[in-house]
Each structure stands twice: as C-alpha cells, then as structure tokens.
Amino acid sequence: MRSCMLLAAAIPLVHGVRIIQSNDDGWAEANLRTFFNVLDKAGQQVILSGPAEQQSGTGSNDAAPTTVDADGCIHASCPGGSPPTGANTTDPRLNYVNSFPVTSIKTGIDVTAPKLWNGAKPELALTGPNVGSNVAIQAPFSGTIGAATYAAKTAKIPAIAFSGVTGDPTAWNAPTPLHSKVYADLALNVTQTIINSGKPFLPDNTFLNVNFPKVESNRCNSASQFKFIFTRINTGLVSARDANWCGSTRLPWEADVILFRGSDCYVSISPGDANDKTTVNDAAVQQQIINKLKPILSCLP
C-alpha cells in the first residue's frame, strides 16, 4: 500500500484524550488529515479510521468491509485490490475501512483503537470536517453525522460532527487549502473547550452538529475572526421552549446562521439527539451543553 500523509513513524500515545476520528469524504481527504495533524500537535491521542472511498450521503448505512475495487482508494491513497481494511505504511494511526462511515468508525472503535491503545477504547469521537455543510434537512443523510451518532448512541462515546461550506474534494498530499487550515483550527477550539469542561464531555445520547461558514481570501480567513453561536438543527416551531440563552427561549436555526449569515463569520453549534439526528429538545440538557461551551459562545446581535 502506498504511503499516505505523514512521513514520520507514529509517536508513542502517552498523553491527551483518546480520540477516534472519521468522516464520509474518505480517509485521504485534506480536511480530515489537516484536523488529524492539528489534534496531534495539540497533544491529543488520535486515531483516524475513515472510508477508503467517498461515501457522502450514506447516512447510517453499515456493511462489512470488502476488498478495494480496481480503482483503488480515494485520491490514489491505496492501490486496487487492497484488503478490506488497512493502515498507512508509516503511521498506523491512519486507517481506511472499505465501507460506510458508520462501519469505518465502528471498526476504529472496536478493533483499531484497542489494538493501538493496549485495549483501551476512545473517549471522544470527532467526524469531519465534512466537505460541504450539514445543516437542517441535510443531517439525516450525512455519513459524517451518521458516524457521529453511531458513536454517541451505540458506542456510548461523546461525539462531535464538523462540516464546512467551503471547498472541494482535495487529496491529502496536495497543498493544504486555506479553508482546511481554518476549519481545523476552529474544530480544535470546539474540541478543546469540550475537553476542558471535564467528563462527561456531553450528556448521554447527544452529539454536537458544528457547521463552519465560507472561508474567503478577504474575510473569515483566520480562526480568530469567527464567533460560535448555539443553534438548533431543526426550527423548533412546534417544539417545547429551549434553554434560556441570549435573552430568548428559542435558539436560532443553524441553517439561518450558516447559509444566510455566513458572511458574518458565525459558526453554528447545535445539540443533536443521537436517536433521530434532530435537536435535543430538553431545555435542561441544552443548558448542560451551553455551560460546557460558554467560554467560546457568543450571541447574535
């Protein structure tokens, strides 16, 4: 199998939080690998277990991995005919699974991570940043969110799904796009805030759906320019009242924040119900998550 991404051998995993990472765009996608590098540099223990090929829009599908077809892994990251699962030749923390995102993260949680961590399993699951947004009605179909909800609901591991509006599929070995760097820094900010809040990192059966707006050369081009807004996945027109936050008991809608206010450099963070991928409608649970994220949250004007 061809060498992918890192040239140095894996360093001993002796510090930080144990993190499993995946996506639905493929294990060799620039957004995913850039975030891996940022997490590693921040001192976290991170293992990547992503699909061998592009699997966007596959939701919560799950099937046994199969031999890689003649075209090979995405971005020529492994040759055709490669085994159903495999690892980077120079860094065993980088792994592909030739199946769906849910299968990929499940394999990482149950097989790969314990093998590399002397039997221990992940403490936190991070998926993405996805190439493209995952807001509102997109959520049920997203493989990135499907992998996160599997972790939160079935594996009982706190999970965060990240997605970004800007970008096209980009190979791990191409020049790193600006948006990949910015999204990785923003995702690290959210991740570190949750870690710093202490365990349990999130309430049971919940996940965070985080969406980043457009990154442009002349604005929203560095992490320091962004503000984090606590939002809803669905509008909640007929739902119970939300937690009292920013002077209101109705949280803003993530689609409005990302798609219609994107030029204001707002990041949406929505509390998701891992059972159905909609908003957590329990105001008390919402408040628990707000309390964890308070150090970075802002209010809309």
TrEMBL record:
Start and end residues of each Survival protein SurE-like phosphatase/nucleotidase domain: 19-222
One Pfam family matching this protein: SurE
Keyword set, alphabetical order: Hydrolase, Metal-binding, Signal
GO molecular function, one term: metal ion binding
Keyword Metal-binding: yes
Signal peptide feature range: 1-16
Source superkingdom: Eukaryota
Record-stated family: Belongs to the SurE nucleotidase family.
PANTHER family in the cross-refs: 5'-NUCLEOTIDASE SURE (PTHR30457), PHOSPHATASE, PUTATIVE (AFU_ORTHOLOGUE AFUA_4G01070)-RELATED (PTHR30457:SF0)
Entry protein name: Survival protein sure-like phosphatase/nucleotidase
Organism: Paraphoma chrysanthemicola
Taxonomic lineage from the root: Eukaryota, Fungi, Dikarya, Ascomycota, Pezizomycotina
